[in-house]
Write a structure and sequence with these properties.
This protein is of the alpha+beta class and 314 residues long. The chain has 2 domains: 161 residues, Ribosomal Protein S5, domain 2; 138 residues, Alpha-Beta Plaits, CATH 3.30.70.890. It is 40% helix and 23% strand. The strands form 2 sheets. Strands 1, 2, 3, 4, 5 and 6 form a 6-stranded mixed sheet that branches. Bound molecules: (3R)-3-hydroxy-3-methyl-5-(phosphonooxy)pentanoic acid (PMV).
Length: 314
């Protein structure tokens, strides 16, 4: 076999996280400045399949780690390709996407593994189709947390801005004018599954209150979609502030996020909010071009572990 390489981007959710688990719409976009990469090389005959992830110090054998998310992505892709014996492969996966940071790192790693395996499998002719990859990645997301909405895998696999409603086919959406976001990392890893489970437990105690917060978040996502399609970018900062206020009410924010959100808005961002599961991870700030440098610098000076700029709709 020839060596195979696959890449996939990270993502941010612009509006609608958490409410999307309960059927409300959400908007997410790929972030190509960070990415996961998988390579597959032939190993000596009879040596079997090894997966290494040097970023997290992991080295596993395909057959001895049946529940591991990396091994599961490879196994499901081999099944999809109709390969029923263990191939002699060395698979390596690396990623510049922060782990447990709300930027889709898990989905991107599964995506590159699925793509690389499908492309390498001798039985598979042609490019791995997005639907197959998406199905595999969703199944792996279910290991990370029990009730993934499907938004992470969808935006990462299709590499397009996504208007997402759980259970409906993914749609992309119109972006009349490109806009800039600063994405800042609190540096605090926060596994999504835990936060989603906490929201679920809290909702069980007060469903009416939580459902009305989810409705309000869904309405913000709808309004944001209309604003993005009409090029009314000045509305987006306001909507981010409103969405963040509702995320606070869900108790998924954190002091680290609040501090950096205040810093971003103080340095001239039109609005900012956490992105993804929350309690740590990343925040996004809506910025006019002339505010990009001051906002980025203020975030870094204020303790952000990283701050990068992405253009949506370019
Ligand atoms: O933290 P991330 O990147 O996995 O995003 C999670 C988004 C949630 O809405 C909180 C969960 C989900 O499954 O949609």
């Amino acid at each position: 076999m020839r060596a195979t390489k696959a890449t996939a981007p990270g993502k941010v959710i612009l509006f609608g996280e958490h409410a999307v688990v309960y059927g409300r719409p959400a908007i997410a976009v790929p972030v190509t400045k960070v990415q996961a990469t998988a390579t597959i090389e032939a190993a000596a005959p009879g040596s079997g399949c090894a997966i290494s992830a040097p970023d997290i110090g992991a080295r596993i054998r395909l057959l001895s780690a049946p529940d591991d998310p990396l091994a599961t992505a490879v196994r499901l892709a081999l099944e999809a390709a109709g390969v029923d014996s263990e191939p002699d492969w060395n698979i390596s996966v690396t990623s510049t996407i922060p782990i447990a940071g709300g930027m889709g790192s898990g989905a991107a790693v599964s995506t590159v593994l699925a793509r690389a395996v499908l492309s390498s499998a001798p039985t598979f002719d042609g490019c791995p189709d997005a639907e197959t990859v998406n199905r595999i990645v969703y199944a792996v997301e279910e290991i990370h947390h029990a009730t993934p909405s499907g938004i992470d895998n969808t935006v990462v696999v299709y590499e397009q801005p996504v208007w997402f409603v759980r259970g409906s086919p993914p749609e992309t959406f119109d972006i009349a004018k490109p806009f800039l976001l600063v994405i800042a990392d609190t540096g605090i890893a926060s596994p999504t599954g835990q936060v989603v489970a906490d929201v679920r437990a809290a909702r069980q105690k007060d469903a009416a209150r939580f459902d009305s917060i989810f409705d309000a978040i869904g309405a913000i996502a709808e309004e944001a979609r209309r604003a993005i399609a009409a090029g009314r970018l000045e509305v987006l900062g306001v909507l981010m502030r409103e969405n963040q206020q509702l995320l606070r009410q869900l108790d998924v924010s954190a002091q680290s996020l609040e501090r950096l959100i205040e810093i971003a808005e103080g340095a001239g961002a039109a609005g900012a909010k956490l992105s993804g599961g929350g309690r740590g991870g990343n925040l996004i700030a809506m910025v006019e071009p002339e505010k990009v440098d001051p906002v980025r610098e203020a975030l870094l000076a204020g303790g952000a572990a990283n701050a990068l700029v992405t253009e949506v709709g370019a």
